[in-house]
């Protein structure tokens, strides 16, 4: 029988219940963790492998085991609208069609890096949906919500979180969206 993602990660890293290791997360992530229903583990990583492709190479895990958080913004009538889009690593957020329509904006684009880091209180390469500002919508691709085990950002480059898609979808205000992302390739 094939090993689970958790079993494979446990062979390389020390997984701990995230609630017992707030020092391994951004402060906002650690604070917001109690809003997640379900088990959430955290594990230390070398910050050099924080980017998804590097982590997957280092762990020999497939892209469908990791979800990326993409911050997208647009405005309508002078009102800015921001969303955190959670998509599997083997997909790309459909920013120009699906996200733009969901935000009800004329043009949607990625939130500038410096602004994303400053507003989230998280490090680039570690941004995740848990602990983002309350005015950010959290849009979760249905494939992410259906996953048994997912690796996501902890808010810092030196660790990652492991949880189920349903736990992620339990975030207050999270919206599960069909076809939020397109397959890559």
From TrEMBL:
YbaK/aminoacyl-tRNA synthetase-associated domain span: 47-169
Cited InterPro entries: YbaK/aa-tRNA-synt-asso_dom_sf (IPR036754), YbaK/aa-tRNA-synth-assoc-dom (IPR007214)
SUPFAM superfamilies xref list: YbaK/ProRS associated domain
Domain of life: Bacteria
Pfam families: tRNA_edit
Protein name: YbaK/aminoacyl-tRNA synthetase-associated domain-containing protein
């Amino acid at each position: 029988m094939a090993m689970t993602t958790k079993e494979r990660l446990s062979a390389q890293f020390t997984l701990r219940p995230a609630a017992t290791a707030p020092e391994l997360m951004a402060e906002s992530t650690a604070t917001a963790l109690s809003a997640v229903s379900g088990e959430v583990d955290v594990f230390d990583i070398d910050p050099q492998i924080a980017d998804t492709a590097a982590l997957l190479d280092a762990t020999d895990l497939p892209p469908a085991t990791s979800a990326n958080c993409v911050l997208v913004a647009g405005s309508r009538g002078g009102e800015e609208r921001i969303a955190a889009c959670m998509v599997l690593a083997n997909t790309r957020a459909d920013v120009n069609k699906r996200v733009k329509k969901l935000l009800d904006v004329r043009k949607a684009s990625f939130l500038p890096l410096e602004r994303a880091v400053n507003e989230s209180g998280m490090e680039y390469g570690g941004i995740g949906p848990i602990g983002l500002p309350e005015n950010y919508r959290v849009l979760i691709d249905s494939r992410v919500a259906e996953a048994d085990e997912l690796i996501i950002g902890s808010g810092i480059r030196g660790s990652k979180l492991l949880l189920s898609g349903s736990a992620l979808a339990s975030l207050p205000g999270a919206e599960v969206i069909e076809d939020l992302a397109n397959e890559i390739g």
